[in-house]
Amino acid sequence: MIVILRENPDQQQLNHLTNWLKEQDISVHRTEGVHQTILGLVGDTSHVDIDRIRQMSIVESVKRVQEPFKNANRKFHPLDTEIRVGSALIGDGSLTVIAGPCSVESEEQIITIAESVKKSGAKLLRGGAFKPRTSPYAFQGLRDEGLKLLLEAKKVTGLPVVSEIMDLSHLDLFADVDVIQVGARNMQNFELLKQLGKSNKPILLKRGLANTYWELLMSAEYILASGNEKVILCERGIRTFETYVRNTLDITAIPALKTLSHLPVVIDPSHAAGVSTFVLPLSMAAVAAGADGLIIEVHNDPPHALCDGLQSLTMQEFDKTMNRLIPLKATCGKIY
Asked: Is the pTM value of this prediction over 0.85?
């Protein structure tokens, strides 16, 4: 349920309304716009007397929200959520690019790539330490040692770091990681999501291989409902009948999620296609559609990468890609 207040509501009446709702075990989330204040009511609102609320002089209207996601719902939070990470502000209409290797392989490798992508305009450094692989015999990442090397690259370059968590037992290892990524396979690991909701770190939540927008937003709801409002949604491609590319990038996810939710939306063109030559056109499509950011895989030697070399850009290719994306974003501006 949402309560839309009249302009400049009487503070005493507002406090009375808020306290009355809290006495009924209803959480009240307040969003203040330029001309309007909205109260988002979360909890069992079936017993709340709507007519009593409507009769208050400070109330303009009351609406029930049918969607199961409340905190992630744009109706509850009309203004876009902006998340500060280092020098980047994700969700403010600018384009934030996260770049780095699929997997951290050595100190020299990660620092070399970090210095290069920063020079090209990336605002955050990504790097996998714990790697979810289809085969148990494939490279699984350097694990905690990989996180240490990633943080060394942060010391050298100043770039905030993004890395994927695989299991709840690893949470303490991510204490110094700036953005915790939840991969597609863990999108509905609800126990993990609830614990991440108790942290104060931004969470990059990837859409599952065969999940709907609503299911993605319900996963985000687990994090938000547990108290962490710093959630970034990520579309990384879904599994369809097409086999020519690794996944099918769902560009429609950008306007759809922007309509349904106030959370920032980032696109992963590398995992979507699985082929490096498709990264630029998919990135351009995402920027033109209004994405808040991109997460792009970059490697100093893709043919010899221990993980996903086929979809990784070289450092030179990433620089050329950024030279195309920056002016495109300036042309497109803020769409939503």
From this structure: yes
